[in-house]
Amino acid sequence: MRYISTRGQVGDRSFIDTLMSGLASDGGLFVPVFWPFLGEIKSDHRYQDIAHHVLSLFIGDEIPSDDLKKIIEDTYSEKVFSDPDITPLKPIGQDIFLMELFHGPTLAFKDVALQLLGRLFDYVLEKNGRTITIIGATSGDTGSAAIEAFKGRKNISITILHPKGRTSDIQRRQMTSVMANNVHNIAVEGTFDDCQNLVKQSFADEDLRQNKNLSAVNSINWARIIAQTVYYIDAARQLGKTPAFSVPTGNFGNIYAAWVGKQIGGDIGPLVIGSNRNDILTRFFETGTMKLSDVAPSHSPSMDIQISSNFERFLYDCLGRDSDRLNKLMTSFKQTGQYSLDGDSLEGSRRNFIAQRCLDEDTIATIAKVYKESGIIIDPHTAVGVHALFKSGIPESHDGPAVALACAHPAKFPDVVEQAIGIRPALPAHLADLMDRPEKYTIMGNDFDKLKTHLLSV
Prior knowledge:
The chain is α/β, with parallel strands linked by helices and 458 residues long. 45% of the residues lie in helices and 14% in strands. It has a domain at 89-106 and 222-421: 3-Layer(aba) Sandwich (Rossmann fold). It contains 19 helices and 15 strands. The model has no long low-confidence stretch (mean pLDDT 94).
């Protein structure tokens, strides 16, 4: 399998090239030159078997099959994930399920992909005798999952940017309480989008790219997308019917992974986007215009985003893989804060997704409703997905099961959960002392020169 950039200036890259570089040097995102075919998934396949099958389609022979199996078995094991099914399904209604994605070490869906990435990076770096500098931006969960996956690895330095004061205390402490020498946390005085822009500026700086061998672990890294595609394929196997999925998303990566699953022939039905009050994706599917507005803090902070980076990958295919048209839209977005689709491109995008918004009061009400009806406590991000699912009408119109993604453990957002149901969920034993651990991080303005100085020094 070979990879090309959505922006059209970088082509014919290997999987390992895309893994290690993350963002293309022309500012685009890597995509495969064609969609491979999934083939048969057997009912007795384990999660690990499906992961090997899906990942092999996109890796080819660059990592020998036996080596890839070892990496996968080590990743999706009882020592890493607390549930043997990795992403178990739990019923909350008639033919309606939650897919629990929070059984990894940091209690968020990001672990499912990032634990794999940590091992893939280690494998490649050891084989080639290389070192890299990872830089990433987080709105809450990516940072802690990345740090957990890469802490203490001798060939890797990792710097994570988070928006100061805009994550939950638990999310922040999961990052800043890690004292490993190769881990660096920066609290940026700005929004998540400011953090993401600083990361993109870093990759566009040739001096940094050459001197520090920069790589990315945000969902702009293609390997993260395909690692997440696995759990959609596995859910269809578990259910034995074509499921619809509702995905709370701000950056579009998680639901894009489901769309990838459909492109390769996975048994995946309608896809519902759940937006919070920062509803740029929902507004796009309603109007055909992607238009920036101010980021507003919400009960689901990991989704407090206005620039949905992964949407570019989907847009590229909507435009018939026309890089010139895509570049014009991206230039318009950078200069004016908006772009529009119309005609066949817009209708094509709407055929793939249903988008709904969930305000903070809806989030509280949905947490309360799910707890009352099923006894299950959900976090506010999961509530966004559940609300969007019911608002979409899919449970009534789809001839098959419906699955809402449970993206984080409720104990990561105890204040919101307590407000909704009067219960303050406890952290699991391995994180019980988190709020007492010392922290280590740097506060920085939204200043690329300062970030560059830091990166050159680590």
